[in-house]
Design goal:
The protein has 187 residues and is an alpha+beta fold. The protein has one domain: Chitinase A, domain 3 (Roll). Helices cover 27% and strands 25% of the residues. The protein is built from 4 helices and 7 strands; from the N terminus they run H-H-E-E-E-E-H-E-H-E-E. Strands 1, 2, 3, 4, 5, 6 and 7 form a 7-stranded antiparallel β-sheet that branches. A hairpin with a 4-residue loop joins strand 1 and strand 2. The chain is globular, with a radius of gyration of 21 Å. The N and C termini lie far apart (65 Å). 24% of the residues are buried. About 5% of the residues have low confidence. Pfam families: FKBP_C. This is Peptidyl-prolyl cis-trans isomerase. Its EC number is 5.2.1.8. InterPro entries: PPIase_dom_sf, PPIase_FKBP_dom. It comes from Algoriphagus taiwanensis.
């Protein structure tokens, strides 16, 4: 058989095999709708008291501030360095990660090899998952908020440690400090 024809045949068979394994229930649109329904159910069953709210229901993104500060303070910009305490949960309220030692101990996720302290990173460099960084971009130093978002803004279809694939996530955030980066300089 002609090597080119054999290669084309192999690619076609491989493509057909790969496509036949795609579960139609797992398309991005179906997963997003499933996540949004689960998030809305969670919010109905677990009302979150807040002093301020932000939501994008079409995207399945909800944020509730426990503490809000003066809206005149600088917005967080790409390149700013943040220090943030956080607790990550699944919609079952099971804690999967936290920067706070006592919360880790109380929820059975304590790791004696870990140094529990606020997370410090430069925003916009891909260090944190999309939903986490987007939530921080809406906050100012001194604010505390709870954010809930669909799996596509979290770990998506990839499981990550104790987080199963396609899991909507909840984060309780305490933005302790923001150090302005170069984007705050005037031109």
């Amino acid at each position: 058989m002609n090597p080119r024809l054999k290669a084309l045949f192999t690619v076609l068979i491989g493509s057909f095999a790969a496509l036949s394994c795609v579960d139609p229930d797992q398309t991005q649109e179906v997963l997003l709708e499933r996540d949004k329904e689960a998030i809305e159910k969670y919010l109905l069953e677990n009302p979150i008291p807040s002093v301020k709210e932000f939501s994008e229901p079409v995207e399945g993104f909800y944020m509730f501030w426990e503490v809000s500060v003066d809206p005149e303070l600088n917005n967080l910009l790409r390149g700013d360095t943040v220090r943030v305490d956080y607790t990550g949960k699944l919609l079952s309220n099971k804690v999967f990660d936290t920067s706070i030692e006592q919360i880790a101990r109380d929820n059975g996720v304590f790791d004696s090899n870990r140094n529990y302290q606020p997370l410090r990173f430069a925003v916009g460099n891909g260090f944190a998952i999309t939903g986490f960084e987007f939530a921080l971009s809406l906050m100012r130093a001194g604010e505390k908020a709870t954010v809930i978002f669909p799996s596509r803004l979290g770990y998506g279809s990839q499981p990550n440690g104790p987080v199963p694939a396609n899991s909507p996530l909840i984060f309780e955030l305490d933005l302790i400090e923001v150090k302005n980066g170069l984007n705050h300089l005037n031109p």
